[in-house]
Amino acid sequence: MAVNLGINIDHVATLRQARLTIEPDPVAAAVLAELGGADGITVHLREDRRHIQDRDVELLRQTVRTRLNLEMAAAPEIVDIAVRLRPDQATLVPERRQELTTEGGLDVVQAKAGLQKVVSRLKDAGIAVSLFIDPDPEQISAARAVGADQIELHTGPYAEVSLRPGRTQPASIDDRLRGRFVPGTDQVAAELARLESAARQAGALGLILAAGHGLTYWNVAPVAAIDGMHELNIGHSIIARAVLVGMERAVREMKEAMGGAVR
Q1: Residues 218-233: b if buried by 16+ CB within 10 A, e if exposed
Q2: Out of 25, 28, 63, 213, which could bridge 156 as a Cys pair, Cβ 3.0 to 4.6 Å?
Q3: d(CA 248, CA 102)
Q4: How far apart are CA 233 and CA 214, in angstroms?
Q5: Which domains does the chain have, with CATH numbers?
Q6: Any idea which of 5-14, 75-84, 137-146, 181-190 has the lowest mean pLDDT?
Q7: Which pLDDT belongs to residue 259?
Q8: Are 115 and 133 in contact (CB under 8 A)?
Q9: In terms of Cα–Cα distance, which of 169, 156, 129 is closest to 145?
């Protein structure tokens, strides 16, 4: 079964907020992403509103035709917004004001009591709940214990070693789409093994499986090929490509890149 692709459009809003103007509009970007074949739209409403704004989420709730996934901290203000707007899914993530992007998975083990209350409130509002976590057995078990429907595995460590300077990479995206990139090195294999082990545990616990963070056209296929993978959420690489070739083409190319891993 094909793996779904959720497009994170936060960095369209990043470009808009750089000038505090009205364009580019992430709502328009979401429409184009869906036309390109996106299976869902993801936005992160941060507490500091550094990119996505409340207005964006409200309009996306009215216009997204696939699935709207709201990434969010388990902060009371943001939880209130989610309960009011009722996205199809809420993905709880850690959040620090100083970080450039999410730096790691949620520590569900340490925050179990508080997270259980937030998960329960979101689910009572009819919102499916996913937790963004590291591929760690204790975190996966804790995610199941607090009532999550889904986990999203943090693929940052895999992405970092798979695209480290010095790795053999294709000369162009066209080469990547023709299947010429073969994952290698012991570090890449070890990180893939961690993700595969986490996927097996998630399946045994009845959790829906997603993954994301740092995935690109060059390293996505092996993660998409993991048994039980339901969805990948990808933002920066697609938005960067879309600046050059347009959103619809960038989405289509990523879906093609997801289709053939060399194992």
Answers
A1: bbbbbbbbbeebbbbb
A2: 213
A3: 26
A4: 10
A5: 4-257 (3.20.20.70)
A6: 181-190
A7: 85
A8: no
A9: 129
What average pLDDT does this structure show over 152-156?
96
Query: DSSP per residue over the chain, as a string?
Result: -PPEEEEE-HHHHHHHHHHTSS-S-HHHHHHHHHHTT-SEEEEE--TT-SS--HHHHHHHHHH-SS-EEEEE-S-HHHHHHHHHH--SEEEE----TT-SS--S---TTTTHHHHHHHHHHHHHTT-EEEEEE-S-HHHHHHHHHTT-SEEEEE-HHHHHHHT-TTS---SSHHHHHTT-----SHHHHHHHHHHHHHHHHHHHHT-EEEEESS--TTTHHHHHTSTTEEEEEE-HHHHHHHHHH-HHHHHHHHHHHTT----
The identity of residue 15, as a single letter, is L
* One-letter amino acid for residue 247 of the chain: M
pLDDT tens digit string along 62-113?
999 999 999 999 999 999 999 999 999 999 999 765 554 556 799 999 999 9
Token representation of residue 15: 């470009």
| Alpha-carbon distances, residue 158 vs 18, 146, 213 (angstroms) | 30, 26, 9
pLDDT band at 187 (very low <50, low <70, confident <90, very high): confident
Q: Where in the sequence numbering do the catalytic residues fall?
A: 44, 71, 213
Q: Give yes or no for residue 221 having a pLDDT over 60.
A: yes
